[in-house]
Specification:
By secondary structure, the chain is of the alpha/beta class. The protein has helices spanning 122-131, 144-147, 172-179, 181-194, 209-219, 239-247, 267-279, 309-315, 372-376, 383-391, 395-400, 411-415, 422-439, and strands at residues 24-26, 32-36, 46-47, 54-55, 60-63, 72-73, 78-87, 93-101, 158-162, 199-205, 225-230, 262-266, 285-291, 299-304, 325-328, 335-336, 350-354. The strands form four sheets. A six-stranded mixed sheet has the order 1-14-13-17-15-16. Strands 2-8-7-4 form a four-stranded antiparallel sheet, with no helix packed on it. The longest helix is centred in the C-terminal third of the chain and has 18 residues, at 422-439. The chain is globular.
């Protein structure tokens, strides 16, 4: 069968061989746990505990701060030592709840207690997902409960499970699909209960044949869940690209997937949904990949939320002496980290350590109008024209030629022979467009 894909894109070095054969290992929490109140797209959560309070594992410590917001739960038992601003992964500071772990791991009543999907209504399933604080674990961080509550729920005919994990080096979703596939399937069934007229399609790139084989076997007798092998190409996991590859439908920045009858949920989010719905477990841990040429022992770790990135790296055997750069997330869309003393949050997917900083060694030159950026842009844009508009501060033109359709995937920057930081320029341009629209 011909493997599906989208148009254009790139094929960066994958680097997955470093950790793809490393089974998931669970690690304990550390002494001081830090829980940022901003762990999602939308409004930050609001603390419901005070300094000096004793909390239990699985206890609500911050409630949702609005419709587009999610609650936060403690992954340990212990004492609230502070509610203060702390450094987070993007280099900014935000309000955080600091808890001293007492290592007793005393849990709230009912945590982990089995629950049957058949006993729940569609509305109850949605309420459980919202109440568990689940967000898109592919990196976007949009509240999953909101995504699964479209106004046209009966019109949703396709639930797409994003198992592509197209970013180089990352293998946590791959290991989840191999090792915890039953949980992912159960999570999908829970979502299907909330979207009664939908059929689920699990999209997996063909560089993960074992995951394809395992999930095909597990869904062979299910007429509502199927697996769709995808051609390995970046950014296959982008929401727009995934929808087009699987359904042939196109969306843009002015549309939601639900407008075309689709909902997209990450494979790791499906596992979190399984734990919430079937095991009465809020989102208090996640699987991360720790890898890169400068990591001593690349691996996939099941990590309690609230531990520091430095603690996670130490749990993986630390980094080599020649490390020069750490990245949170993948090398294409992730963020360089100035410090590892920042907490793991719901959207943390990896720690990458490299002995060479390709970006720092780049010398930018003038655009030679070669058109390579145009040939790879998955949104069919003309990056060289967009870059000129940003450079000349012609923000209205940047908007008119489709600047807001940029998904910031980095394909154009990756292939540019002049080494122009196109993606960063477009991020700035989009900020300026939003400012312009606000003024108008």
């Amino acid at each position: 069968m011909k493997q599906k894909s989208f148009k254009k894109g790139v094929h960066p070095y994958e680097g997955k061989e470093l950790s793809e054969n490393c089974p998931i290992k669970r690690i304990d929490a550390e002494k001081i746990m830090v829980y940022p109140l901003s762990q999602n797209i939308g409004a930050p959560a609001k603390a419901v505990v005070a300094v000096g309070d004793r909390v239990l594992k699985g206890q609500l410590i911050a409630e949702a701060g609005g419709f587009i917001s999610v609650p936060v739960f403690s992954s340990v038992s212990g004492t609230v030592k502070a509610i203060e601003k702390r450094l987070v992964v993007n280099g900014s500071k935000c309000d955080c709840i600091v808890i001293e772990n007492d290592n007793a791991y005393e849990s709230v009543d009912g945590l982990g207690k089995d629950r049957e999907l058949d006993s729940l209504s569609a509305e109850e399933v949605i309420d459980i997902i919202k109440g568990a604080g689940i967000v898109g674990l592919g990196g976007a961080g949009f509240p999953t409960g909101v995504k699964l509550s479209p106004k046209n729920a009966d019109d949703i005919d396709t639930l797409i499970i994003n198992g592509s994990e197209c970013e180089p080096y990352l293998t946590s979703d791959y290991r989840l699909m191999i090792e915890r596939g039953d949980g992912i399937i159960k999570g999908i069934k829970a979502v299907l209960k909330a979207l009664p007229n939908a059929r689920a399609v699990i999209g997996i790139e063909n560089n993960k044949p074992e995951a394809i084989r395992i999930l095909e076997e597990k869904t062979a007798d299910d007429d509502k869940i199927s697996v769709c092998p995808l051609r390995t190409k970046y950014p296959q996991g982008g929401e727009r690209q995934l929808i087009y590859a699987i359904t042939g439908r196109r969306i843009n920045s002015k549309m939601l997937p639900a407008d075309l009858g689709c909902v997209v949920v990450n494979a790791a989010s499906c596992y979190a949904i399984y734990e919430a719905v079937y095991k009465n477990m809020p989102l208090i841990h996640k699987v991360m990949t720790v890898t890169g040429e400068a990591v001593n022992s690349p691996c996939n770790l099941d990590v309690p939320l609230g531990v520091s990135h430095s603690y996670v790296l130490e749990s993986a055997g630390g980094a080599k002496e020649n490390v020069v750069k750490f990245i949170s997330g993948g090398p294409m869309m992730g963020m360089a980290m100035s410090s590892l003393d920042v907490p793991v949050v719901k959207t943390s997917s990896s720690i990458l350590a490299f002995s060479k900083d390709d970006v720092a060694e780049i010398t930018e030159s003038a655009c030679i109008h070669c058109g390579r950026c145009v040939k790879v842009c998955p949104e069919m844009l003309v990056p060289q024209m967009m870059a000129k508009a940003v450079k000349t501060q012609n923000i209205e033109r940047f908007d008119n030629i489709g600047g807001m359709e940029c998904i910031e995937c980095g394909c154009c920057t990756y292939v540019c022979p002049a080494k122009i930081p196109l993606t960063q320029m477009f991020k700035l341009g989009k900020v300026k467009v939003r400012e312009m629209r606000t003024k108008n």
